[in-house]
Amino acid sequence: MYKALIADDEVKVVQLIKGLIHWDKLNLELVGIAHDGIKALSDIESLKPDIVITDIRMPGYDGIELIKRAKELNPEIDVIIISGYQQFDYAHHAIKYDVKDYLLKPLKEEEINHTLKKLIDKYDSNKLKTQNEVDILKRMRKDGEVVRKEFIKRLLVDEKLIDMSLDTIKTEYHVDFYGSAFKAFVIKPDIHYTKHNQALLVILLEKINHFIELELKNVCCEFIMTSTEDRIIALMNYNHEDYKTIRKAILKVLDQVIALRDLYENIYIYFALGDEVYDYQDVLASIKSSKTRIYDKIFNYSNRVIEEEHLLDLIYRFDYNFELEVLKSIVETYDIEKFKQHIKNLTERIITENCLSGETLYHLGYQLNYDLVECIAKESTIKKEIWQSHVLTQIEIDMSVSIHALFELIKDNTIIFINEVIKQQKLDSMKPVNEAVFYIEKYYSDSISLDLISQKVGFSPTYFSSLFKKEMGINFLEYVTSVRMKAAKSMLSDLGKSIEEISNAVGYYDVKHFSKQFKKYSGLSPSKFRKLYF
User: Fold this and answer.
1) Where does residue 399 rank: exposed (0-12), middle (13-18), buried (19+ CB within 10 A)?
2) How do residues 323-352 score in pLDDT, each as one tens digit?
3) Dihedral sign computed on CA atoms, order 55, 58, 64, 67
4) How large a percentage of the chain has pLDDT more than 70?
5) Is residue 78 within 8 Å of 51, Cβ to Cβ?
6) What is the CA angle 301-302-303, rounded to 5?
7) Across the beta sheet with 181-190, what order do the strands follow?
């Protein structure tokens, strides 16, 4: 049997958890109960449970600290967080420590057992991998399911199996479409997307997947579903007269997913239904219509079912190439304020004209972001792999919940990249200037000319002269003179050195010229400066 430990400072909650779990059915044994984090950690060390079910807030160590310390003792231990607090930060930190699920109180019997079963199945699978004969038998038993899943993936994502007969599909792929009607749907959650939040999105999709299977599998004649990185695509086969029941189940799924907003901050749920069709050969049309409609979420269709295309006034034609050239001319000059204003005007114009479909807007957003970043990069010395890392992914673009949010994302990302390029150009331009400054300060007593230094740093004298003045605020000759005069002032304190010796030491071999330059620089002749200060 596998071992579990419950950690919660409320005795009644512990009793509730004990009562909800199907211990025997799951082949799971309760080996310990702790009412504070310190006792829980001690029990984890001594009892070595496979699974810890813990409250997020306890005396001693809170749930997050307990997880961290438990993982140090046993990196393979699995943890399920239970919380009465609707705070995203807890989930965010928990994911960092590979928490397997985050459940809110009041607990649901079906939900906690479903989570535990996933872990038990994982343990069983790992055990069987070490038993070759059993592993072979298991693969043989699961061949049908593997083939079925491959069919689902290809049909819903690649869409290449539409010409097969229903008999062939049933025989070869174990999918039995015996209902009179077909309807596809896409369900897509949008959260504030970052690379770190990918793990949160995975857990969210798993929960949605579970809700869908629970509500729809038993009311459809056949039901197939697959997940991509950021959405779930499904096809329902049912009898047309049962659609009211199907629709109720769909709305129930939507309600359950919307309730997850208690756990995920700023969550938006979109559910797009495709057209109902009555022939398997038309299934592709239903799948495509659901995939197209999900993009209409950009028109503020959050938390409700999208069933029809967003109607557009297509009299106005959007000229992407013209808009891109205008924006390129702005970003090439790094005029951030002008860029902000143009993006704002463009956004308002697109909304007012109502000229683009949701699908077109998301694809346009991705292309515009790519083209702007590439344009800025071409004007700089940024390496290709660096500027390409600043291109937003299609998933990041698709998480935009409105037209305003889409163009704000593009605007902010472009400005961040412009500022990085400006910073890089500043460093690039300072490098040859810094090399020149180093050389002047080290060899000021030698003959120094603009031609000599320009050659050393690899630029033409004209360009380098301009660059030097831009970065230093004074021209090249003025800087060389200032370095020499500062050195001369210091040397004048050595009364044993003559003015002529000092003149030669700072690169002037004509004492009269040196004295003239010194007086111009300090307001006094070298001899008067020495008398006054030394």
Assistant:
1) buried
2) 999 999 999 889 999 999 999 999 999 888
3) negative
4) 90
5) yes
6) 120
7) 222-227, 232-238, 181-190, 268-273, 305-306
The span from the CA of 445 to the CA of 487, in Å, is: 10
- Looking at the DSSP bridge assignments, the partners of residue 7 are 34, 54
Among candidates 236, 304, 267, 309, which has minimal Cα distance to 88?
Answer: 267
pLDDT digits (tens, 9 = 90+) for 374-387: 999 887 778 888 88
Which backbone phi and psi does 224 adopt, to 5 degrees?
Answer: -125, 150
Instruction: Give the DSSP per-residue string, 56-69.
Output: S--SSS-HHHHHHH
Token output for 180:
């009179």
304-338 as b/e: b if 16+ CB within 10 A? ebbbeebeeeeeeebeeeebbeebbebbeebebee
Alpha carbon distance 412, 343 (integer Å): 10
Asked if residue 8 lies in contact with residue 30, where contact means CB atoms within 8 angstroms, the answer is no
CA distance 106 to 378: 56
Name residue 450's amino acid: L
Nearest residue to 312 (alpha-carbon basis) of 367, 346, 351: 351
| CA angle at 389 for the pair 385 and 391, rounded to the nearest 5° | 125
What letter does residue 272 receive in the DSSP assignment?
A: E
For residues 197 and 498, what is the distance between their CA atoms, to the nearest angstrom?
72
CA–CA gap between residue 322 and residue 319 (Å, rounded): 6
Gap between the Cα atoms of 461 and 454, Å rounded? 5
Q: Which amino acid is at 304?
A: R
- Give this prediction's pTM: 0.66
Q: What is the Cα–Cα distance from 51 to 381, expressed in whole angstroms?
A: 52
